[in-house]
Write the structure tokens for this entry.
Amino acid sequence: MNDILVFVQKAIAQSVPLLYGANGEILTQKSGNLNLGVPGMMYMGGIAGLMGAFYYERAAAVPSPVAGMLIALLCALLASGLGALIYSLLTITLRADQNVTGLALTTFGMGFGNFFGGSLSQLAGGVGQISTAVTASAFRAKIPWLCDLPVVGSVLFSHGFLTYFALISAVLLNAFLYHTRKGLSLRSVGENPATADAAGVNVTLSKYLATVVGGMFAGLGGLFFVMEYTGGTWVNNGFGDRGWLAIALVIFARWRPLNAVWGSVLFGGLYILYLYIHGLDRSMQEIFKALPYLVTLAVLVLTSLRKKREDQPPAGLGRPYFREER
């Protein structure tokens, strides 16, 4: 029983960066933009938040956990938002290829994170010696009293606030997309930007806002991994393929934020399942780690066969819009 509870707790922890990245990409894709730079923006958000907290703790005589947390949040949002803004400028205004630009952003973000992560390690005294323990303590703070409840306390209430904000933001994003006029306008941009434009919707502004805010979501996923999951430390290439899993989760969730909630927990569990099965060799471990992608492919095939419009990607996804050609 204890092993099952530990597994569920770990699966929830694994799900958080996936949920942030997936919901950010859902928002972006609903506007018609296909941003494959999610892994890069995760790296940018993670390293920027860590750098902000690191330099704050070095400069402050008595660093405050709350102040460090706010600085880390601000730095992560600014860095990932800037990355998404550059992507938007290139793909929306300058009409660059979205696939190539997204992949370039991922490459840049990973290089940016690893370069500055290595630099911080040397400054702090060696590889793996970066420590922002004071700030990390704020991110890892549990819910008082509830975390001490038997069984459910350790599973549901022993996580930091970014875990619960991921769930809240998914609910709010779903409400925005499907129960507000602004959300309807955004979805119309992703489906048919020419029609949305004719109806008075500012297509360019909608795409910019959705992509930048979506990038900030991805940055929060990177910040969670650095501050809460690893306890305020940096490991080069430590994110693994979580950014790509977040993109796969968008397809699995059929572009619906609430589906991404339980889907992220499923993906998180599948991602670490091999750790709880004894006797697997390296090749079998890699097969188990590929399970989320295999499940996504199965869902993609099934939804394609069913041909339900609400289960399909936005009709204008990945297609540039030129108003003068309307």
The radius of gyration is 20 Å. Residues 248 and 296 are 6 Å apart (CA to CA). DSSP finds 14 helices and no strands in the chain. The mean pLDDT is 89.
